[in-house]
Amino acid sequence: MADALTSKTCTPCKGGIPPLTLEQAQDFQVSGWELQNDARQIERKFKFRNFGEALRFVTQVGELAEAEGHHPDISFGWGHAAVSLQTKKIKGLHENDFIMAAKIDRLADQATA
């Protein structure tokens, strides 16, 4: 599923559509990402060797978010980062969140390689 998602691009969400149900979200589930808040958001925590690696990863995620037009919540510190995704206009999950999750995973794999 992750490979199929990384080949996609986020589409603008104007709202007015229902968020994914728990069952639909589970169908899109990307390994390592946890469903949270009654399946209204997904989150993953990443580990790095030091602050610099974490900072580079967060910067890359920010650049990806700008390119895709889909922006996560990010927190980070020495050797760690946490990324949360939710489509805010629908107060829940959309396919875009899983596209971003798969692409963020690819960045994390490159950051620790």
Number of helices: 4
Order of helices and strands: HHEEHEEH
Q: What is the fourth-level CATH superfamily?
A: Transcriptional coactivator/pterin dehydratase
Strand content: 15-25%
**Rg calc:** 13 Å
Major β-sheet profile: 4 strands, antiparallel
The number of distinct structural domains comes to 1
Say what the CATH topology is.
Gyrase A, domain 2
Round the mean pLDDT to the nearest integer and report it. Answer: 92
CATH class: Alpha Beta
Strand order of the largest sheet: 1-2-4-3
End-to-end CA span: 22 Å
* CATH architecture identity: 2-Layer Sandwich
What does this structure look like?
With 113 residues, the chain is α+β, with helices and mostly antiparallel strands. It has one domain: Transcriptional coactivator/pterin dehydratase (Gyrase A, domain 2), CATH 3.30.1360.20. Strands 1-2-4-3 form a 4-stranded antiparallel sheet, with helices on one face. A hairpin with a 4-residue loop joins β1 and β2. α3 runs antiparallel to α4. The chain is globular. The model has no long low-confidence stretch (mean pLDDT 92).
